Amino acid sequence: MNTAIENFTPRHEFLVCIDSDGCAFDTMEIKHKECFCPATIEDWELQPVSKYAREAWEYVNLYSKTRGCSRFHAIIYMLDLLAERKEVKARNFRMPEYESLRHWVKTAPVLNNDALGKLTDDPVMERTFQWSLDVNRRIAKMVHGVPPFPYVRESLERLSEFADIVIVSATPREALLKEWHEHGLDRYIALLGAQEDGSKKEIISKVKGFYESEKSIMLGDAPGDYNAASANGILFYPIIPNDEENSWKEFHDRIIDLFKRGIYGGEEMKKQIERFDKALPDTPPWISG
Q: Which SS3 state, helix, strand or coil, does residue 44 take?
């Protein structure tokens, strides 16, 4: 499995980009509930409002239209929600400082630990850096033995016969290598695009030029995956959160053939995206009712 985008050479006419967490692997719940959330509460000193911090983190990363965003966007979204929650205000909780992190996220060309580690003279950035490293340590220790969703392996087998399969993920490279190798799925992958390679939009942009747009597709479980595909003018197929097995079964049984024949786009893709859009709310439950 190639990990260097600059050395990528296509072998097929078709391109299939696939997100990892929550799309190919059922890892979103364990990573966010058992790794990200405890690290966030501890490292950002949110213990006095831990209940509300947990609810905000899970909403941002699992149960809303911001699902799948990078950890650096997620921590800002989560802290913003927490700061506005009436129960938090009623406890007179003093929120941690994070404005310099907000500025970095808005202005930095790349959001990853390598870039962040160069900014640790700022105490907010140092805290963010240590938190991000803590998350990685917890994931490395906690997440293993989590298999791909049903029909993922079978789909990859079929796709690899006529398409170059590229992982497009915001997850650090080391974790992706471990997870895809652990389950023997790396044999199907032409290229691994990870957090270190830029955003999902940027990763796709670096490989799409080798293929015709109607022969290129992105599979993902989050609106950010759809946005990355749309920005690059390629097709999109959603893996619906909480209905992943049926999504993969339909992809394996029906959509692969439509894609290969060049007739997936149009009304079929529109119908899939409409289902996807209805699956995730854009207002927190403590606000909407």
A: coil
Low-confidence spans in the chain with pLDDT less than 50: none
CA distances from 120 to 101, 126, 258 (A): 11, 4, 50
Residues 220 and 159 in one domain: yes
CATH classification at residue 196: 3.40.50.1000
Both 132 and 247 in a single domain?
A: no
Whether the full predicted model's pTM is greater than 0.85, yes or no, is: yes
Contact 218, 234 (CB under 8 A): yes
Measured between alpha carbons, how far is 287 from 244 in angstroms, rounded to an integer? Answer: 27
Q: How far apart are CA 146 and CA 24, in angstroms?
A: 11
Same domain, 155 and 275: yes
Only one residue has tokens 């220790």, namely 141
As a whole number of Å, the end-to-end CA separation of the chain is 47
* Contacts (Cβ under 8 Å, ≥6 apart) of 12: 162, 163, 164
